Structure formats: structure tokens, C-alpha cells
């Protein structure tokens, strides 16, 4: 076999399958061979060049001209004609959002839209996140057993996302289905029949986003990113277009919701698997911000991201032709021992944990990173204080929605002895 550039493809490169069980179970472990032996390789199955070392992944993120983000949300599996027709039926017209937009358009939009993400603005959301988290924990605190994903970690970030965007809270159950469909639609490998079902949900999601946007246009005086953007449109109609608003309305929900829900489930799973670390943060909650960063590094919720090569270039010394597509495996970069000492260990005292690339890097770096951090910190704060004796239900099998990029267990069963809850003993 030969790569797009004519280079021979090694047996491991040709066997690489990001939808197979090894990558689904543990992406950085599945590409360890690549970090060690062939850090930039062409995957004939995927039709992408795969980049796995820290320095190379960062260099690709840093140069968004040579490595265009335009394919970041492109469907990774070619769509059937039937699925395309289904999307068309709903008038689906997802256009550029910030994350997949080239310069010179991207930066002016990012500047106009970023104010609600600043730390001063985010402070206003903290009481809402705290209140929601407490309410959800209240519901199961005496039960002794819970699926944290179903009973808390999925819905709280969704509600926070809706508040942040300024969207009404109704239709949550439907939205949950819609956003799962969106992940499979974009990053998964659905069968032809599944594609149509997925497209139905994505189409409905799109229409729902449009309806809410119309509602908010009637009165855009409220808090939230969308009302803010509607007001910004009046001053910058050429920068913030209608199609743009509709696209960020839908993409914003996905960006803010699933990433954070998955990051929280990954973090709690990782900490409970590393009991001594969990106990350390129970004893000293001041360590929680470090724990959040270390969990994002070790088990982040975005495993890989994509870029399109716009001119003949090299990555890590390997020639890559113009037009090539890159899968940059940031989860692998985060476990590269060339950058992080003992990268597979969970170490709260690591001094460079924040160098992780889970939020990307450079001019597209995640705008919502501080909102996500706040949520994760509050979740850990509430759980370690109220349920320090929490443990994973033994022998459970963790399952993941098969896709290249968004990663978190579908369920996370935990158990504890309610009689030992500290608040009960010490009211
Ligand atoms: C962009 C990850 C939470 C909004 C991104 C990118 C990644 C990412 C990998 C692309 C970065 C790049 O190309 O360099 C995550 C993770 C999250 C998270 C892992 C949770 C743990 C959020 C939240 C919001 C959000 C809560 C919204 C409230 C955005 C936006 C962009 C973005 C608007 C596009 C920025 C741009 O292109 O200028 N995120 N994200 N994200 N994220 Fe997040």
C-alpha cells in the first residue's frame, strides 16, 4: 500500500482503526506504538494522516493557515444519499461556526463573541452551577448506588449549557437524543440505516435550534451567549450573519454540553480508579483545581481533532501534501513522555499539567474552557465533600459511543454506604 504522498505504509499504520476496540477503549494506549516508532503516519482505512506526539500536535494547532480547521466538523464517514436527502428535508444548513472557520473571518467573529466567556462574566454563572449540582446530588445521596452519567453528569452540563446560551430549559429529553445523534453524525461510523435515523434527529435538532433562535430574537435582552450575539449582530451585521447565528445556536449546545459531561465522567472514573488521589482531594479540597487539570490531561473528553493541509509541508519531518487531512490525536500528545514525566500516572503535583492539549491550542483554543473547569471543580467539590466514600461498582464494563473524537463512558455506576454519609453523621 502507498500513502497519498507515495510513502510506504507500515503494517501497523495500515491496521490502525480508530473505530476498533483498542482505540475505543484507550486512544493514547492504542497509538503508543506510533508515538514510539512512527509519530506521523498515513492511515489508509481512515484516509487521514495521524499525528500522535506532543510537539507535532501542538505545531499543527499553532499554525491555522497551513493546517486549516475547516474540516473539524466534517462527517468522518461519507454520508449516504438517503441520509443527505433526510437532512435536506429539514433544511439542514449547518455552516461555519468558530471552530471550523478560516482566517480572516474567524478572528473578528471570535473577538465580537468572546465577552460572555471572560472570567468576570463567568462568575455570574457559578451560583447556578452550584445549585444545580447540589439538587442533583440531593436526589441520589441516600440511595447508595447511582449511574452518575444518567443521574447527574449528562443533565447538569446540558442545563448549564442552556443557561449559558440563554436558551429555555424545555425539551431536555429530546435534546439529549439530538446531541448524541450529532456526535455519531459527525465523528462516528454509522451504518447506512443508522445514518438515516441519525439524520432525522440532526434535522430536528437543527429545526429546534431555529425555533429557539426566533423566540430569542423577539426579545434578545436576556443573559446568555445567544441573546448577546443577537445584540452584537445589530452592530456588526456583516460579521454576525443569520446563518451564523443559527449554526452557533446548535453547535454551541454540543460544544458546551457533551464535552463537559464526558470530561466529568472521565475525571470521576479516573480518580476513583486511583483511590489514593481521590482520598487526597477529599482531605484537601484545595487540590481540586489541580485534579481537574490532571484529569483533563490524562483522560480528556476530546481524544482527537482534525485539520486540512493547505500547502505542501512537513509534520515532524514527514512530508505531507497539500489537501491531506490530519487526525491530530491530542489525547496521545497528553501522554507523550517526551513532554510529561510518567505520563500514565495521575499526579496532582505535576507542574506542567496545564500544558495539555485537550482544549486545543492557539487561535481556536476552546472558548468555553473556564466554564468547563468551573463545572468540573464544583462537581468534584460537592462529591468529595458529601460522598467521600464513593467507589466504582466493581466489574462494570465501560462502553463508549464509537467515534474518533468525543470520549466518555456511557454509564458510570458508583456505590456507597448512605449510613456513612458525613452530613448525616454531622448535621
Ligand atoms: C473549541 C474542547 C467545553 C465552546 C474547542 C476545541 C476543542 C474543545 C478541542 C477546538 C480547539 C482548537 O481547534 O484549537 C473542549 C473540551 C471541553 C469544552 C474538552 C470540556 C471539557 C466547552 C464549553 C463551551 C465550549 C463548555 C461553551 C460554553 C467552544 C467554542 C470553541 C471551542 C465556542 C471554538 C473556538 C474557536 O474556534 O475560536 N473546544 N471544549 N467548549 N469550544 Fe470547547
In CATH, the homologous superfamily goes by the name Cytochrome P450
Number of helices: 20
* Percentage of β-strand residues: 5-15%
CATH architecture: Orthogonal Bundle
Please count the beta strands (DSSP E, at least 2 residues each): 10
Q: What Rg is obtained from the alpha carbons, in whole angstroms?
A: 21 Å
Main CATH class: Mainly Alpha
**Bound chemical compounds:** protoporphyrin IX containing FE
Largest sheet: 5 strands, mixed
- How is the CATH topology named? Cytochrome p450
Low-confidence stretches: none
- What portion of residues is helical? 40-55%
How many distinct folded domains?
Answer: 1
What are the secondary-structure elements, in order, as H or E?
A: HHHHEEHEHHHHEHHHHHHHHEEEEHHEEH
Distance between the termini: 68 Å
Overall 3D geometry? globular
Q: What number is the mean pLDDT?
A: 90
Description:
There is one protein chain. With 427 residues, the protein is α+β, with helices and mostly antiparallel strands. The chain has one domain: Orthogonal Bundle (Cytochrome p450), CATH 1.10.630. It is 50% helix and 8% strand. It has 20 helices and ten strands. Strand 1 and strand 2 form a beta hairpin. Helix 12 crosses helix 13 and helix 14 runs antiparallel to helix 15. The chain is globular and about 65 Å long. The mean pLDDT is 90. The site of protoporphyrin IX containing FE has 27 residues, from helix 15 and helix 19.
Strands, helices and their partners?
Elements: H1 11-15, H2 21-25, H3 27-30, H4 32-37, E1 40-43, E2 48-51, H5 54-62, E3 67-68, H6 81-89, H7 106-113, H8 119-122, H9 126-140, E4 145-147, H10 148-153, H11 155-165, H12 172-187, H13 192-218, H14 225-235, H15 242-273, H16 275-283, H17 288-298, E5 305-309, E6 313-315, E7 318-320, E8 325-328, H18 330-333, H19 369-386, E9 391-392, E10 413-415, H20 422-425
Parallel strand pairs: 2-8
Antiparallel strand pairs: 1-2, 3-5, 4-10, 5-8, 6-7, 9-10
Amino acid at each position: 500500500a502507498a500513502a497519498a504522498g507515495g510513502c510506504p505504509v507500515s503494517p501497523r499504520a495500515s491496521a490502525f482503526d480508530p473505530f476498533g476496540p483498542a482505540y475505543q477503549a484507550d486512544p493514547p494506549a492504542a497509538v503508543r506504538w506510533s508515538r514510539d516508532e512512527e509519530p506521523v503516519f498515513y492511515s489508509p482505512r481512515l484516509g487521514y494522516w495521524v499525528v500522535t506526539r506532543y510537539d507535532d500536535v501542538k505545531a499543527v494547532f499553532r499554525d491555522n493557515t497551513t493546517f486549516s480547521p475547516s474540516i473539524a466538523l466534517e462527517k468522518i464517514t461519507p454520508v449516504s444519499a438517503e441520509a443527505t436527502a433526510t437532512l435536506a428535508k429539514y433544511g439542514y444548513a449547518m455552516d461555519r461556526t468558530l471552530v471550523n472557520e478560516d482566517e480572516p473571518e474567524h478572528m473578528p467573529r471570535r473577538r465580537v463573541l468572546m465577552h460572555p466567556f471572560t472570567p468576570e462574566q463567568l462568575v455570574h454563572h457559578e451560583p447556578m452551577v452550584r445549585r444545580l449540582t447540589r439538587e442533583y446530588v440531593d436526589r441520589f445521596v441516600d440511595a447508595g448506588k447511582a449511574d452518575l452519567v444518567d443521574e447527574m453528569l449528562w443533565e447538569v452540563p446540558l442545563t448549564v449549557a442552556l443557561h449559558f446560551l440563554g436558551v429555555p430549559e424545555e425539551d431536555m429529553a429530546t435534546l439529549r437524543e439530538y446531541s448524541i445523534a450529532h456526535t455519531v453524525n459527525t465523528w462516528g461510523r454509522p451504518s447506512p440505516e443508522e445514518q438515516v435515523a441519525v439524520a432525522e434527529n440532526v434535522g430536528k435538532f437543527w429545526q429546534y435550534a431555529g425555533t429557539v433562535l426566533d423566540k430569542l430574537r423577539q426579545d434578545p435582552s436576556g443573559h446568555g451567549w445567544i441573546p448577546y450575539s443577537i445584540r452584537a449582530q445589530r452592530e456588526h451585521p456583516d460579521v454576525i450573519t443569520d446563518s451564523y447565528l443559527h449554526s452557533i445556536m446548535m453547535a454551541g449546545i454540543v460544544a458546551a454540553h457533551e464535552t463537559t459531561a464526558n470530561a466529568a465522567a472521565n475525571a470521576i472514573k479516573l480518580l476513583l480508579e486511583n483511590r489514593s488521589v481521590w482520598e487526597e482531594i477529599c482531605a484537601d479540597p484545595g487540590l481540586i483545581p489541580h485534579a481537574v487539570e490532571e484529569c483533563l490531561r490524562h483522560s480528556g473528553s476530546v481524544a482527537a481533532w482534525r485539520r486540512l493541509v493547505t500547502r505542501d509541508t512537513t509534520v515532524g519531518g514527514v512530508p505531507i501534501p497539500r489537501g491531506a487531512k490530519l487526525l491530530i490525536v491530542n489525547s496521545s500528545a497528553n501522554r507523550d513522555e517526551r513532554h510529561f514525566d510518567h505520563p500514565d500516572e495521575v499526579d496532582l503535583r505535576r507542574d506542567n499539567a496545564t500544558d495539555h492539549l485537550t482544549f486545543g491550542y492557539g487561535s481556536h483554543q476552546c472558548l468555553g474552557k473556564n466554564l468547563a473547569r468551573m463545572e468540573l471543580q464544583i462537581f468534584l467539590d460537592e462529591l468529595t465533600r458529601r460522598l467521600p466514600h464513593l467507589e466504582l461498582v466493581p466489574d462494570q464494563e465501560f462502553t463508549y459511543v464509537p467515534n474518533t473524537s468525543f470520549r466518555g463512558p456511557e454509564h458510570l455506576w458508583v456505590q456507597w454506604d448512605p449510613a456513612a454519609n458525613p452530613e448525616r453523621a454531622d448535621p
